[in-house]
Design goal:
Helices cover 30% and strands 37% of the residues. The chain has 281 residues and is of the alpha+beta class. The protein folds into 2 domains: 92 residues, Gcn5-related N-acetyltransferase (GNAT) (Aminopeptidase, 3-Layer(aba) Sandwich), CATH 3.40.630.30; 178 residues, 3-Layer(aba) Sandwich (Aminopeptidase), CATH 3.40.630.30. The strands form 2 sheets. Strands 7-8-9-10-11-13-12 form a 7-stranded mixed sheet. Helix 3 runs parallel beside helix 8 and helix 5 crosses helix 6. The longest helix has 15 residues. The protein is globular.
Length: 281
């Protein structure tokens, strides 16, 4: 699995699993050192991509080195300042995704958004299930669900010990249960300092899909994040997934970019869509 390293007050992940360097957090005082280090890491390991989250105003040195803006999240830092999502493609094959379905998925999701809120009927389905916060005693069952849903994943969510560790590190998990069995999961990865959250790690058992569970999870997640004074929510969703893109569109998230062949999920490098929303009390 890819390794996470702290560089000053910044954080990167790198490894062969995703064949990339991922700049997860950048402190404005670390820009020059971090840029040098991620370039060296990519060169040493012959990676095919560098993916970087860069606060607006810190991007100049990156753009001068050949990075391109793939997307952004407005008001990501404390509900005020934007963050750019930059990519640098080090091998030609990584810079293109010619799957025609990706455009169709996004177009359908955007049409759903234009149609307005259609959640009332889906809310009725929740009576068959119940949703609650998950804790460490759920970790083995969570790992089992993730193992069934994902062949591979950018982080070791198939490992109960890893899941338990993340619960101590600003991750909050939610689960849908039916007759006492965990059937769907999601998580909120909070950046408490900057008041933003990534809505992520959605997984529903195959036999339980098509019941609006992800939409219901997302509504509960938003309520919990508002309670915790988080200002901005975003996701990086699989571009080929009708369900996930439509879920965020239905809840009035805005599409703000596409990350080409960004993440190894299910044994393939997948293109991802960025969706974001300003949370309101």
């Amino acid at each position: 699995m890819d390794e996470i390293i702290n560089l000053g007050n910044s954080m990167i992940q790198h490894g062969k699993h995703n064949d990339r360097v991922y700049l997860m957090k950048l402190d404005k005082n670390d820009v020059s050192d971090v840029l040098y280090n991620i370039e060296e890491k990519a060169k040493e390991n012959d990676y095919s991509k560098i993916f970087a989250k860069v606060p607006y105003g810190c991007e100049k040195e990156f753009l001068a080195k050949g990075y391109m803006v793939e997307g952004h999240v407005p008001e990501m830092v404390k509900g005020e300042n934007d963050v750019l999502f930059l990519g640098k493609f080090l091998k030609e094959w990584r810079s293109k995704d010619e799957d025609p379905n990706l455009k169709l998925v996004l177009e359908k999701a955007l049409r759903k958004k234009e149609e307005g809120n259609t959640l009332n009927n889906e809310n009725k389905l929740i009576s068959k299930y119940y949703i609650r916060l998950l804790d460490k005693k759920d970790s083995k069952e969570m790992a089992k669900v993730y193992s069934e849903v994902f062949e591979t994943y950018p982080f070791p969510i198939h490992d109960p010990n890893y899941i338990e560790e993340t619960m101590d590190d600003n991750l909050v998990y939610f689960g849908v249960f039916m007759e006492g069995k965990l059937i769907a999961i999601s998580s909120c990865e909070m950046d408490v300092k900057n008041l933003n959250v990534e809505m992520t790690d959605f997984a529903t058992l195959p036999e339980c899909r098509g019941n609006g569970l992800a939409v219901n999870l997302l509504m509960v997640m938003e309520e919990e994040m508002v309670r915790r004074d988080i200002k901005t929510a975003y996701t990086i969703a699989r571009a080929k997934s009708y369900g996930m893109n439509i879920t965020f569109a239905k809840l009035e998230y805005e599409h703000s970019g596409t990350l080409i062949k960004n993440t190894n999920i299910g044994g393939d490098f997948e293109t991802m869509n960025i969706w974001w929303k300003k949370l309101k009390k």
